[in-house]
Design brief:
The protein has 452 residues and is α/β, with parallel strands linked by helices. Among the domains are: 67-174 and 338-377, 3-Layer(aba) Sandwich (D-Maltodextrin-Binding Protein, domain 2), CATH 3.40.190; 177-336 and 396-401, 3-Layer(aba) Sandwich (D-Maltodextrin-Binding Protein, domain 2), CATH 3.40.190.10. Helices cover 45% and strands 12% of the residues. It is built from 19 helices and eleven strands. The chain has helices at residues 5-25, 27-33, 79-92, 105-117, 131-138, 185-190, 199-211, 225-234, 236-239, 241-250, 258-270, 283-291, 304-311, 350-359, 363-373, 387-398, 404-408, 416-428, 434-450; strands spanning 67-73, 96-102, 124-127, 172-173, 176-184, 215-218, 295-301, 317-320, 333-337, 340-343, 400-402. The strands form two sheets. Strands 5, 6, 7, 8, 9 and 11 form a six-stranded mixed β-sheet that branches. Helix 3 (79-92) links the parallel strand 1 (67-73) and strand 2 (96-102). Helix 8 packs across helix 18 (416-428), helix 11 (258-270) packs across helix 19 (434-450) and helix 18 (416-428) packs antiparallel against helix 19 (434-450). The longest helix is centred in the N-terminal third of the chain and has 21 residues, at 5-25. It is globular and about 80 Å long.
């Protein structure tokens, strides 16, 4: 084929138009890639056009660093609950591992004190309520939690058990405990016994049980605090509950008041209904007497319900939340805030520890706490499922008084509470009288007041 000038011109014109068109449509992508305008590479999208493959966060951002927090507790029996709670926490914070380390309740104070003083404190620690926890806060071992998210989910009055002398909050409260009398429903039914409503009826029922060869009350006395707790459960109607508490707080009465003396006489009366040599009996052995039906009643905190039911699931258990001043009236329930959880000032991971504290204020944690332990959570809106827990909760809502020796006599070294319960041991061993128990307790209270 022969090419003339016109044909060559037309061909040149077509090629020029094609090259110009390709150059214009791919200019943005070519500039970004650094290639020439006349290259034959695939055009790239414009910078203003998002691509589906581009992540919303930087691709090179490192995952959170793995952190392990050590957490102390005095309740080994709660391990299962904490395992479930920690697993729930890890759904949101998988990089924060919690090493839950529980100790025997009677050994916990010494273990924790040694850890704090030696600089080897855990990241998260369980505080005894009121004076004991306040002492740890006052000595500068804890981080204040006043700005912690979620505190509004906790009943405000519970924080009184977790504050320092400076008024700051140092702990997240767990629950409101009550002094409770557990009883074996089957034994009561077998002996045609009505559930006692008053102190006088309680003594009558105890005598009937004793006459029938049954230990009325499974009481351990080796750990002296158990005696103080028993006193707290049975004493309020002897000294008229909150009326006496108010007088003590205002300085109008003290432990030598005849009403309080009467409460200690009640403890003396109960001695005949306890197991033989009960002062040498530990709490686990006392529980065994209750499980096996050798004893009909057992006095402790309501938190023992989970232990009782897990150990003896077929046992038919009932509760007496407290005594009424007169038959037909509401029982007066002795209550106190249980331990709180705090963060050590020396933790190397304060942010992560505070995240776990925040989690403990949530309804998710509160519901796990209640469902697993059959106890009343401190978190608002959590509804107990267990009928006995609901029974105690309803009684608390009607009439309650503080565990006097724990809440208001926890000061001093040794504390007035400690002196009182040790004196009760001495009374049961025949070493001192009721009047001497009162004398020793009041002298301790006076020393504590003088050291403030």
């Amino acid at each position: 084929m022969k090419w003339n000038k016109l044909s060559i011109f037309v061909l040149f014109l077509i090629l020029s138009i094609a090259i110009i068109g390709c150059s214009g449509s791919g200019s943005a992508g070519n500039q970004n890639s650094g290639t020439s305008s006349g290259s034959n590479t695939t055009p790239q999208p414009a910078a203003s056009q998002p691509t589906t493959s581009q992540p919303a966060t930087p691709q090179n951002e490192a995952p959170p660093e793995e952190v392990e927090l050590v957490m102390y507790s005095w309740r080994a029996e709660d391990r299962g609950m904490y395992e479930k709670a920690i697993a729930k926490f890890n759904e949101t914070y998988p990089h924060i591992q919690i090493d839950f380390q529980p100790y025997q309740s009677t050994e916990y104070n010494t273990i924790l004190t040694n850890a704090l003083m030696s600089g080897s404190a855990p990241d998260i620690l369980q505080l005894r309520p009121y004076a004991s926890g306040r002492s740890i806060a006052d000595n500068g071992y804890l981080l204040p939690l006043d700005n912690l998210l979620g505190l509004e989910h906790i009943n405000e009055q519970y924080f009184e058990a977790a504050k320092g002398s400076d008024g700051k909050i140092y702990g997240v409260p767990l629950t409101l405990n009550s002094g409770t009398i557990f009883y074996n429903k089957d034994l009561f039914e077998a002996h045609s016994l009505n559930v006692p409503e008053t102190w006088e009826e309680f003594v009558q029922v105890s005598q009937t049980l004793k006459d029938n060869g049954i230990i009325p009350i499974a009481q351990g006395g080796r750990a002296a605090y158990l005696l103080s707790l028993t006193h707290g459960a049975i004493a309020p109607t002897a000294y008229n509950g909150n009326e006496f508490v108010d007088k003590v707080l205002s300085g109008q009465a003290n432990l030598t008041d005849p009403a309080f003396v009467e409460s200690v006489k009640r403890m003396e009366t109960l001695g005949q209904f306890f197991p033989q040599d009960f002062v040498a009996l530990d709490d686990a052995s006392a529980q065994t007497l209750f499980y096996t039906g050798e004893a009909a009643m057992y006095i402790n905190g309501d938190y023992r319900l989970a232990t009782l039911e897990s150990t003896a699931p077929d046992m038919n258990i009932g509760v007496i939340p407290g005594f009424a001043a007169a038959k037909g009236q509401d029982p007066i329930v002795t209550t106190w805030v249980d331990g709180s959880y705090a963060v050590s000032k020396d933790t190397k991971h304060p942010e992560e520890a505070l995240l776990f504290m925040e989690f403990m204020t949530t309804e998710a944690f509160g519901q796990i706490f209640t469902d697993e332990l059959n106890r009343l959570s401190a978190v608002k809106g959590v509804q107990p499922k267990h009928p006995i827990v609901n029974q105690i909760t309803a009684a608390i809502a009607k009439s309650t008084t503080p565990y006097l020796l724990l809440v208001h006599f926890g000061e001093g070294e040794p504390t007035t509470k400690t002196v009182f319960e040790n004196a009760l041991q001495g009374m049961y061993l025949g070493e001192i009288t009721v009047d001497q128990v009162i004398q020793q307790a009041q002298e301790a209270a006076d020393r504590a007041a003088g050291s403030e």
